Inverse folding.
């Protein structure tokens, strides 16, 4: 088939009218869609994946309706469902999808259905669905909980899952899997296409997206890769003297003058930080350093009001903002063509994460992307060099799907019971077509079903936990209040209670965590939305504030601020350190941090790839045992608990545990029996008892209690 197939002509003409030429992978996806195939498109950020997925349904409809004079006066019912992981992407996606419809004169409609859309609009959509609907996994679950959900999706022909790499490997992704299994049960010939930019395990990603058939075999699908990888430049702002640079910390304001200079070099810059607190502090620091930039720079994170976020996004797209300080809220999807510089403050935490953020600059096919890393302490220079090496080697993190999480299944059972009810055997077969539940056992299914019918062993005494009941062979929700409560709590995102922040007689600024506000009293000042605010009063989950005549205030702290480095980045760091131990310093960052590494080698040692560095020090505080696996904060915390437990089996041990991304410390009044543990049977590093010792070590510490809500 040539590139000028008649079926592709409308798309080719539309692209040509804008001075563009469709890339080969886009045309491959269009042909695959027209042939009835499903699949996964993997290409760099800014290479046109959205139009690759969107034009397939458009071309199919145009092929089935060639006579424009006979096109319907009313828009067709829902044919395309577009799932996005972030509400922030929905508005930009809606605008992008609508453009070809206007130019081609198609009688299609495109609308959003997210938490930012009014209840009136949502009610109208239920009665008169748009032709294409952009939504999130949570809003899709809410749609499936409607009594007439099957009728709503009766004409659905395609589902596009945008930024699949962001959903896969999370419980939100599992929620999407269950929703897709439900839709495929109703529409067996449904086409499903995923879009991904930075992912290592593509075959698994495709399998998870498409699920399995009734026999448990993987559904056929096409993996489409973009052509040559997009050119990405990773560089750093280096400190003038590493011996004067902090050896610890996470804020990095010592690099503020260099960041200001870097912003001035370009047209529009995104300054990424890893937490919302950092975003607030860096925005304030930039304003204080350059007061003349007021009005030209802004900040963006998920706790700001929708109106504020939209204003910032519009300013970026229109090019009238010099700089935006942001978090992962601007990681994905949104096309900010004017952005020509990305700065990453602090550790990138992962190879894929850095690639994703770099792709925010040069967000067009063929344009170079660039990310400049801003270290906050000396050792982050090693991270940057390691990340660049991993990108060059193609070592990008994969995502592994959770294995049949029963909490997500329990929620889905109630959702389906609300959405018309279910027959047990039919729904069990359907659930097992979702990849994460392909090995779901009968006993696990019965546990989940009993939990929603009777409350399980723990909650059977409470009537409100008996959420569904059997009625004429179908499980349904018979209590309207239970249905209302369930719809209000649908989702898998764990977070603290939020309080709205609002000016006296003015607009809302966004939301802030309740436990932070609880520590404030009227008159206290705090930093939020780029302003120093004074708390006036708290009433009915609203913090009423006024502008404060001050430049200082407390900084809120949100959950999700302890993102660990990835395994791939940790391994790349170990490789860089091993090279440094051999005298190989082939990166500007490694040359800059060389004095620190020489000091490490003098006082201790730099571990080789097959070595684990363990250090022991005695101070006035006690006996310190330092271990450096470079496995990320969460793994290191678990290893610390395991080490403490096993050392405690040799002799009683009371230890304080501290973990970072690089390693962990056990601080105890007496020396830890390390030598005895290494010589014991089984030894300290024995792997045969992990399944027994890990739960025991967690139960012996406070980790199980602290992480309960996120398990």
């Amino acid at each position: 088939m040539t590139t000028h197939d008649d079926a592709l002509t409308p798309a080719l003409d539309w692209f040509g009218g804008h001075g563009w030429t469709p890339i080969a992978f886009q045309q491959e996806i269009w042909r695959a869609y027209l042939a009835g195939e499903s699949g996964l498109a993997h290409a760099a950020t800014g290479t046109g994946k959205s139009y690759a997925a969107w034009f397939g349904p458009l071309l199919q409809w145009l092929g089935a309706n060639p006579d424009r004079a006979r096109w319907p006066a009313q828009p067709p019912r829902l044919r395309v469902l577009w799932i996005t992981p972030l509400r922030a992407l929905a508005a930009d996606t809606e605008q992008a999808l609508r453009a070809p419809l206007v130019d081609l004169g198609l009688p299609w409609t495109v609308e959003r259905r997210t938490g930012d859309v009014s209840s009136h609009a949502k009610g109208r959509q239920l009665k008169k669905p748009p032709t294409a609907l952009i939504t999130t996994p949570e809003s899709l679950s809410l749609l499936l909980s409607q009594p007439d959900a099957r009728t709503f999706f009766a004409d659905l022909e395609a589902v596009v899952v945008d930024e699949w790499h962001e959903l896969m490997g999370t419980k939100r992704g599992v929620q999407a899997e269950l929703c897709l299994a439900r839709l495929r049960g109703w529409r067996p010939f449904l086409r499903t296409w995923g879009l991904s930019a930075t992912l290592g395990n593509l075959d698994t990603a495709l399998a998870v997206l498409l699920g399995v058939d009734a026999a448990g075999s993987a559904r056929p699908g096409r993996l489409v890769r973009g052509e040559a990888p997009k050119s990405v430049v990773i560089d750093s702002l280096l400190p003038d003297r590493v011996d004067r640079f902090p050896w610890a910390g996470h804020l990095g304001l010592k690099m503020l003058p260099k960041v200001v200079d870097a912003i001035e070099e370009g047209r529009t810059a995104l300054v990424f930080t890893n937490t919302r607190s950092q975003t607030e502090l860096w925005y304030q620091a930039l304003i204080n350093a350059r007061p003349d930039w007021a009005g030209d720079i802004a900040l963006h994170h998920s706790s700001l009001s929708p109106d504020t976020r939209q204003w910032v996004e519009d300013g970026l797209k229109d090019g009238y903002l010099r700089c935006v300080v942001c978090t992962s809220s601007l990681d994905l999807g949104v096309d900010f063509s004017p952005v020509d510089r990305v700065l990453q403050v602090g550790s990138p935490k992962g190879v894929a994460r850095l690639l994703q953020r770099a792709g925010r600059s040069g967000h067009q096919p063929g344009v170079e992307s660039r990310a400049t890393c801003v270290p906050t302490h000396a050792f982050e220079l090693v991270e940057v060099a390691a990340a660049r090496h991993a990108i060059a080697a193609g070592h990008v993190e994969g995502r592994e799907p959770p294995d049949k999480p029963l909490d997500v299944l329990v929620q889905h059972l109630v959702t389906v019971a609300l959405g018309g009810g279910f027959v047990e055997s039919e729904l069990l077969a359907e659930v097992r077509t979702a990849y994460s539940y392909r090995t779901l056992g009968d006993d696990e299914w019965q546990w989940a079903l009993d939990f929603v019918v009777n409350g399980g062993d723990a909650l059977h005494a409470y009537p409100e936990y008996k959420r569904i009941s059997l009625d004429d062979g179908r499980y349904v929700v018979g209590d309207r209040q239970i249905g209302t409560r369930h719809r209000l709590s649908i989702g898998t995102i764990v977070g603290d209670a939020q309080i709205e922040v609002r000016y006296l007689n003015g607009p809302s600024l966004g939301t802030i965590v309740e436990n932070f506000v609880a520590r404030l009293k009227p008159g206290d000042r705090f930093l939020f939305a780029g302003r120093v605010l004074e708390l006036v009063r708290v009433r009915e989950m609203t913090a009423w504030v006024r502008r404060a005549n001050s430049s200082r205030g407390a900084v809120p702290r949100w959950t999700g601020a302890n993102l660990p480095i990835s395994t791939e980045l940790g391994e790349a760091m170990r490789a860089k350190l091993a090279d440094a131990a051999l005298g190989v310093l082939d990166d500007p960052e490694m040359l800059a941090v060389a004095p620190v590494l020489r000091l490490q080698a003098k006082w201790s040692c730099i571990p080789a790839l097959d070595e684990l560095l363990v250090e022991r020090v005695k101070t006035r505080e006690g006996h310190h045992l330092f271990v450096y696996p470079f496995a990320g904060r969460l793994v290191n915390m678990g290893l610390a608990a395991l080490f403490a437990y096993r050392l405690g089996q040799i002799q009683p041990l009371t230890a304080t545990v501290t973990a970072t991304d690089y390693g962990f410390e056990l601080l105890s009044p007496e020396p830890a029996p390390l030598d005895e543990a290494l010589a014991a049977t089984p030894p300290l590093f024995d792997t045969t008892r992990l399944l027994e010792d890990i739960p025991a070590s967690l139960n012996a510490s406070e980790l199980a209690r602290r992480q309960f809500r996120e398990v």
